[in-house]
Amino acid sequence: MIEYIPFLVMAAALLALGFAAYKYFSVKRLPEGTEEMAAISAKIRRGAMAYLKRQYKTVAVFFVVIIILLTVLAVAGTITPFVPVAFLTGGLFSGLSGFIGMKISTYANSRTANGAREGLNRGLKIAFSSGMVTGLTVVGLGLFDISFWFILLKFVFKLPIEDLTSTMLTFGMGASSMALFARVGGGIYTKAADVGADLVGKVEAGIPEDDPRNPACIADNVGDNVGDVAGMGADLYESYVGSIISSGALAVAAGYGLTGVLLPMCIAAMGIIASIVSSFFVSTKEGATQKQLLSSLRKGTYSAAVISAIASVALILVITPDMPGLIGAVVSGLLAGVLIGYFTEYYTSDSYKPTQKLSKSSETGTATIIIDGVALGMNSGAYLCEIMRSGIQSIDGGQTEAARSLGMSQLQNMRFIILPQAIKNILPAIGNELVTMVKETSIIQYLGISDIMYNNGIVVSATYNPLPCYYISAIIYLTLNVVLGKGLDIFEGRLKRSER
Q1: How far apart are CA 213 and CA 223, in angstroms?
Q2: Which range is least confidently modeled, 376-380, 396-400, 449-453?
Q3: Which domain holds residue 49?
Q4: Angle between helices 161-198 and 82-118 (to 10 degrees)
Q5: Is residue 355 domain-resident?
Q6: pTM
């Protein structure tokens, strides 16, 4: 039965792409509104397409050079001949994800505004549908790419699982390369175009910022689409594909074999189904506040998380019944993701006290709002860091489940792990005297290295546990953020009192 799982995963990917296509054409069939709304939307669409056309021409040169280099290495026998093609498909699908997301965004802007004229829930539905197109395109293309290469390499070319995962890592690298250009390039454009046009339109010409006659209004929306939509789409594709592939590669390295590779793919496939089902739960009432709108969106997120958790438990018990501890790792990861989303909303939405307090600080001048804003950012980061640390250290004191959540085996079964290559190469080179000194102290244990075994004074193996590094980093980060954040709060209070 297990040999059919990749085909079921591909079916889930095609389901995501099919549902995205349905939503795409459903949104596109809706009326754009008045002639002026349609004209403004067309200008934004032309500007975004002009930028992407120029960007993809530049990225194409980069990809041609890299593919030539990879082809030379493949001919020389250094790498497998699949690597150049995998690199290309990863980059193409990453760019395609961003392109489709930008297309639906530029079509949906005027249609969402026109729908909002009919009612708040109508506008929310249109906006959410256009967002689903981007999200489902990203996961659909990503999972299709992964399942396609898995089927091709496993069942057609019959590569061993170790070579299969190492080859699949390459199209993750191609996706990362495209995401770098899309995200950074789009971000630079949106800031430069927005600020430059804003200075000309608002400062020099005296046109209000949101007036469509102001070039800043068009430039700002073009920048949002090429940076926050096209760039984000490519970036999300890279992150999504990378997380699945890296989990499989680590599972193979930990000795889990084929089932360890298939489990992340199956969980991702069930996530697609959970997302589609939960999308029907998103709605709001007329006259809803910003806080109520955010609550409507959270309803979809929470329902998807619950469905994913239940499905993941079932998959783990069926595919890897000898590793029930993975359930805790998956559930803790889902919970951490939900909490990160909630606290991000809490610290950035004007419906909650942190942002309201920051708004009030602007009444006393520029200095106080800068100080208060920096302090707020530091405090919010401290909570997010603690959530991530807790997610890693989930159950059983943190060691067993943290290792599982990273795709590694239980630490009690890792008594004889070869050190990472970089550490293996460094330790023997520092000399017997320093090795002896390190051994006689407990310094190296703070780096997570223990049970060092020697052969004629040379380190040959050791147990490596990365958790102490996480603890130290978390403690330092939390301490700095809390101390600096509270210090800025105190300084701001004194500054306000002196101004009075």
Answers
A1: 17
A2: 396-400
A3: 2-282
A4: 40
A5: no
A6: 0.77
